[in-house]
Amino acid sequence: MPQMNRRRALQLLAALGTTGLVAACGNDPDGGESGSTGEPIKIGLIAPKAGGLKAIGDEIVNGFQLFLDLNEQRLGGHPVTLITADEGDDARSGKAAVDELLHQGVLALTGVVNSAVMLGIRDTVEKARVPLIGSNASPSTLQSVVYIWRTSYVLDEAGRALGGYLKSRLRPGSRLAIIMPDSVSGEDVERGFREEFGSTDPRIAGRAIWTTAAANPSKNAYTQDIGKALDENPDAILCFFTGEAGVEFIKQLRQAGYKGPVYAPGFLTEGTALENMKNDALNIQTALNYSADLSNTANRVFASEYRKKLHVSPTTYAMASYDAAQVLHQAIQLAGANPSSQEVNLALGKLGQIDSPRGIWQFNQPRTPQQKWYLRQVQRDGQVLSNVLISELATLG
């Protein structure tokens, strides 16, 4: 076998992990991918193209496309046409996006940011018998599915990871205020937190305060609810927001005079949201299944290539989409030379451990990852803010 150059090694490593690299080198004397002459396939990617969740949608597209870039625009040896469709902001627009992609004959689907959209397209995907590897939205109520897999998380796990951490961290007699958006996602996070922390623990300052779930909130959208929370004189605040909503919430919280500890699922400070919060984000602690500074081989490849291409650090959204491409790559390989959607779905169930930038994980019975969760803190790294890895919190799923 000719000596493999560095670029090719990175491609194979990113696609298959270290074990897959050995197998690929052994199976193909020319250094190419096994099955590289496969027929072209179409993959449909569903993501918001406007509104407050657009930045997350962009990350999902970027992560999936990076995997394709590192693998000569192929999955499982087949040339790929990636077709994107706008999920919009509700179940109706999400279903329209799925219908459009199915009409174009996609082998599999991926993406989906909004939990309401994921629940709204469930029956359409199951009836079509086309696998969907969701790379973000993952409500806990999405159960008993056959064709829907997720490479992200289940939202109550973010609450559980924080619940276990804060249960031991908060001093006796302290008070924690909880502010959540009135949404499926907010309910998941709050429930997971209470289950782990203890719903009758006196350190929880009354009931959760439910606020607007708008993706593009106004400049005073949270003012009244923040006032209610601060009236309890809390020692810390637990919240859950993403994208532009998170930026606006933290801005209004600081304007209200609160300077104390803030804890949240890591989506609060991911990507452009952290940049837009600026110094208001300093010292916020979050729980997430990924940090860009994790030290493992798969992440060194992924993060390095992502920064090289896009000039920013990767987020959990990009990572989960990159992994969605990776599991599709492996499943399509297993499915054979002319895979059907049903054969790819069966192959997904045969995958073992995934060598991921987040660390090793694998699908559990509900088709979601069993994975580690990490504690991160916003700190200044030179002239920029960064989510710095502090410690491991738990293995969940």
TrEMBL record:
Protein name, UniProt field: ABC transporter substrate-binding protein
Keyword Signal recorded: yes
Organism: Micromonospora musae
Gene3D superfamilies: 3.40.50.2300
Keywords from the named record: Signal
Leucine-binding protein domain segment(s): 40-383
InterPro entries attached to this UniProt entry: BCAA_transport, Leu-bd, Peripla_BP_I
Top-level division of the source organism's lineage: Bacteria
Chain ranges passing through the membrane: none
Signal peptide residues on this chain, from the entry's feature table: 1-23
Family: Belongs to the leucine-binding protein family.
PANTHER family found in the cross-reference section: LEUCINE-SPECIFIC-BINDING PROTEIN (PTHR30483), PERIPLASMIC BINDING PROTEIN OF ABC TRANSPORTER FOR NATURAL AMINO ACIDS (PTHR30483:SF6)
Name of one Pfam family that matches: Peripla_BP_6
